[in-house]
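Pasting as-is:
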Amino acid sequence: MEIINVLTNKQKHEYINFVYSVYKGDCNYRDLNLLFVKNFLWQKDIYSKRCSVQPLMVKNGSIRAVCMFIYSQDMKELRLSFLEFLPDAQKYLHELLTQGQAMAKELGLKKIVVGINGHISYGLGIFVGGNNKFEFNANYNPSYYADELNKLGLVKKKAYSYKYSLKTSIFKEDILDNVYNAYGFRTMDKRNFKNEMLLFGDLCDKVLRDTPYYSTKTKEEMYEMMKQMKPLLKNEDIIFALKDGKEAGFIFTHPDFSDFMTKQKVNLVSLYFKNRFRKADSIIYNTIGVLPEYQNTALAFGLIHQTVKLCAGCKKVVSSFVLEENKASTKVCRVFSQGIEREYNLYELEV
C-alpha cells in the first residue's frame, strides 16, 4: 500500500478519473460536485487559494481511495474532504486517518472531520439513506461508504434534508400578519448582481458564523462562488427581508438543476438552456438566514411563505442538509416539513 501526495497535473487527472470509475454504471450519479473537486485540486479561486489543500491517493497496485485534507486558520478541525473509495477499503481509510492525525498534530488541531467538502457551502455529509436520486447541492455516494466508515469507531454526527409542504394552510394568519406588518420583502436584482452577492455573502457570514462546522467565507469569496451560478439564477431565487429599509435576512432557493441532466457528465450550455425553457420538478431550499437581532420573530416563516407562493405547480420542495445539532434550523424544518428526505453522517476523530 502506498499513499501518494497528488502534486502533478497527471496525478490530478488520475484522481478525477478514479472518481468516475467509482460511479461507473451508476445511473443516479451526476458529476456536478467534481466542479468543486477541481477547484480545490488546482486551487482556482480566492477561497481555495487561502486554504491548505493536500490531495492524496491510496494505491495498492491501482488506486483504491482518494481524498483531500483541507485546513484554513479559521477552521477548528482538519477536514478530510471529497473522500471516494472502492469497496473493502477499511485498511486504506485507516491509513488515511493515521496520516491525518499526524497532520492535525502538526497544525495543533484536536479533531479530524470526515464529510465536509472543504466548506459547508460545497456540501456536507456521507449519504446514508432516503431518496437516492442525485440532487444538486447535495452529497451523493454509494451505500457502502457509510458501512465502511461505521466500522472505524469514529464519533458519528447526523444531518438531514427535509421534504417541505407546499400548502399555505400550514401558516397561521395572525403570525403572518405580524411578520408582514414588521418586515418588507424584495427579490434579488440580477442587473446589480455583484453588489447583490456581496450583500448576500455578508449576510451569510453574519448569520452562519455560529453554525457548527462553519468557517468564514468573505463576501468577495461568496460572490466568486455565486458568479458561477449566475446564468442559472432568477431574481426570485434569492429573497431579502427588509427592516426599516435594511436587509434583515434572506432565503435562497433554486430548482434542482439535476432534473435537467440525463447523463453523468454535466453539459453547462445544455443545462443553461433547459433551465431557461423548462420547469424543474423539484425546488431546493438552499439556505435560510435571519440576522441574530431578528431571530425568534417568525421572520423565517415569512421568508418561507414568500417562496411557497412562487413554488405553485412544483411537485416537490426539499431542504438542503440540516445538522441535527443545529436546533433552530431543525425546529423550523420539523414545523414545515412532511418528513425526512435524506439522511447523512459526519464522522469525527479526536486527535
